[in-house]
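User: Could you go from structure to sequence for me? I need the amino acid at each position, not a summary. Structure tokens:
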């Protein structure tokens, strides 16, 4: 059997989630026939068959996450000798008979397609592996309240997940009864005694509502990327306002922001750059590709807008419309999800004045535009009401100085202050 491992789908991500199998075990397939839909960090892509043959094994089901480089499917190719499967190799090493699958393996932990032996421990009176114990902590499941279904009385992964969905009553709860209160002799009443307040029965506390659910797809990747950024980047944020009262009616805000980013980079190129922390290397880019932060119900997308430095207003608007349409339809080409040199978030279309946006390494800067407002501004001889745009610039202080960031932001503000 030939094993096909999940390839890098062009985004440099460590894994992808199975959305839907388009074939089944035993199906005959041809070269390049669509085989499975996989959801990466930002898009759903179809993975074609790399062989002409018969599907012998599918590694995983819908909702499973497969690591890049791990087995995805096994093929039987006519005229070729079959190679041993990973399961067969594992059985040869263990030299032990196979056991029926009960949802988990006693003393073993599932890691993609492989099984790694683990020592069982007894927690709250039940046997459990470290992996299942960790899952119980994550889902806030009390192992003492879980009924084991695995062989030899071992709590399985499925047991914990089921308990998370339908929390069982704690052991012995139904046997516990509240003892009847002991009769007490009421104290003698006197006319001068104050009357006690009327007794009110306490309302029982309501349990938390809602159900735990796994984080999948874009949100799972977003959580990982944000955690990595928090661990790696020394982020500092600088804030100021741009006076845009000289703009004409109907000015394209996004296009003007993009133009001002290039003005900032011309004043301080060091913010239009990448930084490799482990190698202590910096790359200052000669052109500008802007990673546009796009909010969707599925999570946050960062889509690259190419060649901002050499595009006019009409070209930028056309490119923005294309990226928006692709994002809405989850049809973003892989090349549009990487290699941006600086980031932009226009959260002000919803609400909010200032923010501390998160940098996605290897970029060293992200600019966020808040909600436009009118503000009284002193001018020669009196006051005027001007429209202003709040700006927040987060930069990586490991590689950018505060002075460089301030000069970059100043150049942006000056460009935004110009008429069209």
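Assistant: Here is the amino acid at each position, in order:
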């Amino acid at each position: 059997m030939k094993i096909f491992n999940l390839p890098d789908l062009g985004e440099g991500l460590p894994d992808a989630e199975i959305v839907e199998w388009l074939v089944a075990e035993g199906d005959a397939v041809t070269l390049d026939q669509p085989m499975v839909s996989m959801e990466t960090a930002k898009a759903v892509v179809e993975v074609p068959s790399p062989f002409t043959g018969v599907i012998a094994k599918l590694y995983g089901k819908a909702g499973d996450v497969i690591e890049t480089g791990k087995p995805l499917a096994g093929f039987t190719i006519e005229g070729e000798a079959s190679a041993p499967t990973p399961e067969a190799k594992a059985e040869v090493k263990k030299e032990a008979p196979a056991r029926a699958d009960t949802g988990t393996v006693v003393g073993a932990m599932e890691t993609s397609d492989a099984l790694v032996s683990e020592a069982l421990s007894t927690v709250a009176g039940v046997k459990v592996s470290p992996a299942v114990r960790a899952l119980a902590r994550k889902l806030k499941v009390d192992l003492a309240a879980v009924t084991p279904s695995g062989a030899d009385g071992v709590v399985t992964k499925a047991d914990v997940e089921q308990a998370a969905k339908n929390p069982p009553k704690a052991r012995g709860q139904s046997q516990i009864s509240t003892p009847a209160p002991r009769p007490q002799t009421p104290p003698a009443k006197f006319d001068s005694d104050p009357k006690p307040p009327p007794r009110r029965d306490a309302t029982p506390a309501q349990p938390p509502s809602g159900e735990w659910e796994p984080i999948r797809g874009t949100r799972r990747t977003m959580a990982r990327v944000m955690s990595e950024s928090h661990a790696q980047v020394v982020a500092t944020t600088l804030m100021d306002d741009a006076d845009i009262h000289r703009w004409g009616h109907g000015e394209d805000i996004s296009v003007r922001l993009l133009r001002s980013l290039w003005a900032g980079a011309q004043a301080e190129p060091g913010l239009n750059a990448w930084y490799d922390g482990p190698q202590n290397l910096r790359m200052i880019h000669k052109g500008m590709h802007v990673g546009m932060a796009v909010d969707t119900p599925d999570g946050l997308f960062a889509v690259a807008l190419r060649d901002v430095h050499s595009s006019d207003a009409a070209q930028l608007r056309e490119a923005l419309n294309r990226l928006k349409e692709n994002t809405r339809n989850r049809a973003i080409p892989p090349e549009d999800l990487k290699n941006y040199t600086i980031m932009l978030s226009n959260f002000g279309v919803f609400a909010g004045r200032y923010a501390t946006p998160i940098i996605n390494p290897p970029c060293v800067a992200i600019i966020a535009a808040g909600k436009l407002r009118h503000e009284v501004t002193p001018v020669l001889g009196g006051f005027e009401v001007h429209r202003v745009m709040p700006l927040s610039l987060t930069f990586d202080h490991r590689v950018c100085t505060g002075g460089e960031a301030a000069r970059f932001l100043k150049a942006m503000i000056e460009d935004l202050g110009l008429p069209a």
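One structural detail worth keeping in mind: Confidence is low (pLDDT under 50) at residues 91-118, 170-179.
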